[in-house]
Amino acid sequence: MKNLANCKPSEFLKQINKIRKSVQNWLKVTDILEIRKRLPQGMPELTAELSQAETEAVKAKRDEMMTEQMQANLSAILDALLDDHPDETLEVLALCCFVEPENVDSYTISQYLESINELINDRAVRDFFTSLMSAGMR
User: What are the residues whose beta carbons fall under 8 Å from the beta carbon of 91, sequence distance 6 or more?
Assistant: First the structure.
């Protein structure tokens, strides 16, 4: 299956512009950038008055709370992508594979998963998506 990792440079440039536009909408409707920013409520504070043992205990509690929040954030992101906005998510996936969104069901999930694996393992493609996400965070 053709994708951004194995296409011609001339195809890549045209396709990434389509993807860029789709990702802008996808980031907006899924709200994943805001979900990522969620922090735990009631985090204990580190203060100068704490003993070393108390400081260590507070740090451990903060780490535990951050881990739990990251798990909750990941779950909320997956819900947003897969339950709340599957069409927008599939559109981005399809465009990465040079499939027009209206034809997304013309391919098997195995074909998409193989393609995703190839995309993830291509540095240029990863860098492109990292820059898209960074631009979306501004």
Answer: 22, 26, 101, 104
DSSP conformational letter for 79: I
Residue whose structure tokens are 């493609």? 125
The domain segmentation of the chain, as residue ranges, is 9-136
Give 136's pLDDT tier (boundaries 50, 70, 90): low
Kindly list the distances between the CA atom of residue 97 and the CA atoms of 14, 15, 89, in Å, as whole numbers in the listed order. Answer: 13, 9, 13
Please tell me whether the overall predicted TM-score, pTM, comes out greater than 0.85 for this model: no
Question: Tens of pLDDT along 12-50?
Answer: 989 989 998 999 999 999 999 999 999 999 999 999 999
